[in-house]
Amino acid sequence: MANFKPFNKYTFFLLDKLITKYNIKSPFLEVGCGTGELSKHLAKNKFYGKAIDSSKKAISIAKINLKDFSSIKVEKRIMSELSGKYNSIFLWDVIEHIKNDKQTLMKAYRILNNNGYLIMHTPSNPNEWSWDDEFYGHYRRYTEKDMRSKLELAGFKVCSIWDTTYPIFWIIRRIYLKIMKKPNLTINKKTRTSKSGLDPSWKSNVTSKKIIMLNPFWQLVYRLQYFFFRNYVGKGFSFLVVAKK
Length: 245
Prior knowledge:
alpha/beta, Rossmann fold, SAM-dependent_MTases_sf, Methyltransferase type 11
C-alpha cells in the first residue's frame, strides 16, 4: 500500500512529527531509496545526505526526481559497501525485503554517529499477511515485540513505534484485497523486490485521481488517526519506528 498516495503522504506527516520530536538531523542515508520520494521530501525540509538503491532503474528515476536538490547524492550502492558516518538512517519499506535483517540493523548501528537515529517504516502484524506481501517480495511482517528485540540486540534504544494504518487505511486495504484480482506472482522474490517501488500493486479505480485529490478529507483522516490511533500498534498493518544509537 506504500504506493497509495494518500497513505504515503500520511506516513510523511507522521515522520515530520517524529523528526521534530527527536530533533533528527542530517547528514542522512536512505537505503533502498526507490524513486526518491522520501529523499525528496527530506530535501524539501532542508535535509542533506545520500540516497542509495541496488536497482539501476530505480536510481535512474531517483536522479531525475532529485535533480533539483544538489544536497542529495544518489548512488547505485548496497548498504554493506558503505563506510562513513550519518546522523540519521532511513529504511523506508525496506527491512522487510532483506533476508538477514539482523545483519542490516547491526550495519546501520555501526555507521550511525553516537546519538544518531534509525528510522524505519515496515509492515507489521503477521496476521495481516496477504498476496500484496508476496507481490512486493516481503520476507516477513513484524510484531512490536520482535522489532524491539531485534533493535535492542543490534544495540539500539527504541524511542517510538507508531501505527500508520489503523483504522482508515486498514479498512481500505481490506476492501482492496477482496475486490482486486491477485496479480502474477511467478517471478522470483528478488525481481519482485526490485520492482516493488516501481510497479505498484495499487492500480485500479480505487486509487483514481478523484479519490486521491480529496485533500480536505485526507487531512481529516490524518489528524483523526494521529491523535487517536497512532499507538494502536497491534491493530494495523504497518508501523513507523524510531531507534537511537
